[in-house]
Recover the amino acids of this structure.
């Protein structure tokens, strides 16, 4: 049904797309955390922008969602 070459092609394609998504979310979280650190008195929760970006780079969309919940949702304490 599928040859080894087809499976290899699709696995490389999906991995490349996922890598770009992780990098894009990581850069976006780093920029947002840096802006929060500069403009708000609360800043980033737990760690600084670099570590949030690193966590999103390795954790992906789930960690980015946790970042958003902690910093921008209505669940955040004011």
């Amino acid at each position: 049904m599928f040859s080894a070459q087809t499976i290899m092609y699709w696995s490389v394609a999906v991995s490349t797309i996922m890598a770009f998504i992780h990098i894009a979310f990581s850069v976006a979280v780093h920029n947002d955390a840096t802006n929060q650190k500069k403009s708000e008195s609360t800043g980033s929760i737990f760690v600084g922008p670099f570590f949030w970006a690193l966590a999103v780079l390795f954790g992906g969309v789930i960690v980015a969602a946790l970042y958003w919940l902690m910093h921008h949702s209505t669940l955040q304490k004011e």
